[in-house]
Amino acid sequence: MSEFRKDPVTNRWIIISPEFRNRMNIPEKLEEVNSGPIPENCPFCPGHEDKTPPEIIAYRKGGEKNGPGWWVRVIPNKFPALMIEPPLKRRGIGMYDMMNGVGAHEVIIETPNHYMSLGKMTEKEVEDVLWAYYDRFTDLQKDPRMEYILIFKNHKREAGSSLEHPHSQIIATPIVPKRVMEEMKWAKKYYDYKKRCMFCDILTQEKEDGRRVIFENDHFITFAPFAPRFPYEMHIMPKEHQPSFGMIKPSEMPHLASALRDALRRIYLLLNDPPYNFIIHSSLQSRKDVSESYHWHIEIVPRLIKMTGFEWGSGFHINPVYPEEAASQLREVNVT
Amino acid sequence: MSEFRKDPVTNRWIIISPEFRNRMNIPEKLEEVNSGPIPENCPFCPGHEDKTPPEIIAYRKGGEKNGPGWWVRVIPNKFPALMIEPPLKRRGIGMYDMMNGVGAHEVIIETPNHYMSLGKMTEKEVEDVLWAYYDRFTDLQKDPRMEYILIFKNHKREAGSSLEHPHSQIIATPIVPKRVMEEMKWAKKYYDYKKRCMFCDILTQEKEDGRRVIFENDHFITFAPFAPRFPYEMHIMPKEHQPSFGMIKPSEMPHLASALRDALRRIYLLLNDPPYNFIIHSSLQSRKDVSESYHWHIEIVPRLIKMTGFEWGSGFHINPVYPEEAASQLREVNVT
User: Is the entire prediction scored with pTM above 0.90?
Assistant: First the structure.
């Protein structure tokens, strides 16, 4: 029996419809490949550093800049959607608004090992990737033209990745994206009315209910949201109120690494290394207006279903798996 | 050079970035197959009528109900996301809202020929499909529980189609979907301020500018929107103000068929029969509050690009093709 559910964060309705289960495309078995020869044409492999623009930062012990020896490396995107140089110009044509493509578009190469992935790394390795996110986030938010910074990952071709070598991306934009704007707007309304953070309230309700909680440590909790757009969608949230990823404390980072690694490991094992995206939703630290109402988090969405005209046309999603059931399956995974 | 553009209808920013052109996946050549044997397991082929739920309507000359002889046939979806029978129940759990899955989910089988498609049909055949849309739309909107009716098509597997045989779908829901709600809200604001329909103003500006217009006949115009989410996206709009698809006049239907067939024919020939979705955005006739501000239209989106974490996370899209260029290419197609 299907059901409509409303996500309180975005005010978006979704449909849970177990009838649609045959639309899911889960890889049949886990193909575990952890090493192999360095592909000649992979620009992200060690020894091929000259095939990318010069690095912005790299974590390395010895070795030359733009040479091998790094374990995490950040570079400008060679085919950037946005560029940092030109001054921002806003203009209109009749009823239309536009501006030039100012922004930043960077790539975080997560590991020198072409065959590795976040779901197979150690917690320490995942933590170093998160530190690279943090370093770039806190640096990019100094540019006063930037209104938003989006950190995201596309795992596998079906999730929009164009290169196999494990990498994530950062895009900084002079506008707040619509989805985030909506989240911030609703959370602000909620705060103005209740004088409490909506996300903190969600965490309280999720912990009391328990059915959708998947993992918890001292500082982070992983749960399946009440109205998920996608089957096996997971959210990771700091347990204490924190509006911006840029405000994470050094002592909290190992806990975030542990939670993120755990979540990715669970879908790796349960869903046979499926394509997925994850996205860090965070306000900039300078956004004082939302510092009490917004609460940063990571959204992880396995890509098991193709989008149809229904989703494009309506903006609401049909999800074949109840989050209570997804959470139960994900909890039972023996994370090694 | 990339550019931000804002869609006035949804207030959504998009990025046009020619650098992303290598992300587009256009079929290499047109494979024209117009006939073949009837696949044994296709439930939509003539002679297999017993493999579907009993028909709701069918256009036929003679022949038995639920037997062959039809040229357009409408059936309930065998795996419906929503069902019409139960009474609507709204309820809450703590801060969450939900309701049971009441609604309608129907399939329009567009032709008995498994190998046909709308882009290859005659205008008369397309018109009959549109009449089936109209018949079901006007019937379903009589149910007072239904707040919205969405007619859409998924062409090919990559666009979310699970069956090859040409078909479209109708979903009626007890809520107005988010995307449409936003359109209606912005259009209403615009109307309240200017006392003019926003869509009518867009049409005026598009006709004056001309660069994005692709096709025009007495009653309809096809254009590439100023801020398209997808490469080669097209919108078809009635030239006179008309809030609901249910208000189309019989004399206008052949013109709509001609415009829709023309648009699908152009992408068929230019982009080698790409996967696509189209969606009819329309208010119900009963929505008197938006009758002056809303203007129904068809959105056609070729699916040439995979969605990434950036789109999921931000809700704004990176489109590698300027709509002026897409329109110019689409205009030049020799439509036969």
Answer: yes
